[in-house]
Amino acid sequence: MKNKAPIPHVEMAAFHYELPSNRIAMTPLEHRDASKLLVRKNKSLQHSSYHLLPELLPTTSLLVFNNTRVIAARLRFKKSTGGEIEIFLLEPADGNYACLNDLEQSTWKCLVGGAKKWKNDELLHASNDIHNNKLQAQLVSKKADHCLINFQWSSRLPFEKIIAETGNIPLPPYIKREATEADQHRYQTVYAAHEGSVAAPTAGLHFTETLIKKLSAKGIKHSFVTLHVGAGTFKPVTAALIGEHAMHEEYFQVHIDLISELGNSEKTVVSVGTTSLRTLESIYWIAVKATRNKKNEFSSNNNLGQWEHLSLSEEILPSRAEAFQQLKALMNENAVQSIEGHTGICIAPGYAFKVANVLITNFHQPQSTLLLIIAAIMGNEWRSMYTHALENAYRFLSYGDGSLLFIDDTA
Prior knowledge:
Elements: E1 36-41, E2 44-49, H1 53-56, E3 61-66, E4 68-70, E5 74-78, E6 84-92, E7 105-113, E8 124-126, E9 136-142, E10 147-152, H2 159-166, H3 181-186, E11 194-197, H4 209-217, E12 221-227, E13 250-255, H5 256-262, E14 268-272, H6 274-292, E15 301-304, H7 308-312, H8 320-333, E16 338-343, E17 358-362, H9 369-378, H10 381-391, E18 402-406
Parallel strand pairs: 1-18, 3-12, 3-14, 4-11, 14-17, 15-16
Antiparallel strand pairs: 1-2, 5-6, 5-8, 6-7, 7-10, 8-9, 9-10, 12-13, 13-16, 17-18
């Protein structure tokens, strides 16, 4: 019997660096594609800018964007005493984002500021109910890491419209200011389509419609995945080892058209952001699972656990092209147009990338799971790159500058 594949022994203390507060971008630049871009290729660094991307990428590139849309997840409610409680939407109680179309009531997992002061039988009323939707919140239960809340309203509007009229865009916790009207636009990608995220896929914030057209004019294709970014993306890793950290799970959906594109071995797959990267790598492992289990009933609903890829790696693995060609065949055989589910994959140093050849991403927080992805690509070189970025006045985190990382150094 084979031994179970070991979880990577990664000490989080090795991924600390000093991030001065004045290096954290509190606001976006006036022009999205004016952000600086630090290019790492063939183990050397080059300064560039997002608007020059068409000159930096090979014509064989397939850019993969995350087309999720950020919802107005911050809601404020009043208690009968006049005090306020902030409710932060995390995800639907049942994990099904179709509930954004719910009429009259919807149940969600939420974070609650001041939950101890909220009695279970007290109905709260929305503080900012300017359209008189009579939005109310009722506490269903308190869990270890969230509260279950049922929302009710009187108007015949879907929940996504209710929160758009009532809530605020949820800027990351390190942006120490209230969201403005400008953030309603700038904390969304220009191609955002599917409501559900509580944080933006920030690598995509640098792209404009003009830049995408310039990329297309060069023959560079693009496609989309959907991954609804959860608040867990900001969850600090408090464990000493990554193996002791419980990774957050996020909903994803990938259409058969992209599966078909990924079956082309000649494509240079450029992941725009870590959310796209996690989705692409997850769908590879799901393809492996589906192929191995093809004698069982095929399902379009698939989940991938935090370390599940380790056990899947114990057998001989197909190439990217083989995996996606086989998955496409299964999808066609079962008349399935898209694969969806939840992924909790944790990409840490030692991970061998199966799909992405290139990553476009912002600069990430110290000791974060996102920084581990950078280290999985670059090894210990991540530290010298981040030091170089800090010394050259790059702006960090969500509204900051970015990097272009050639994963295999041959793309």
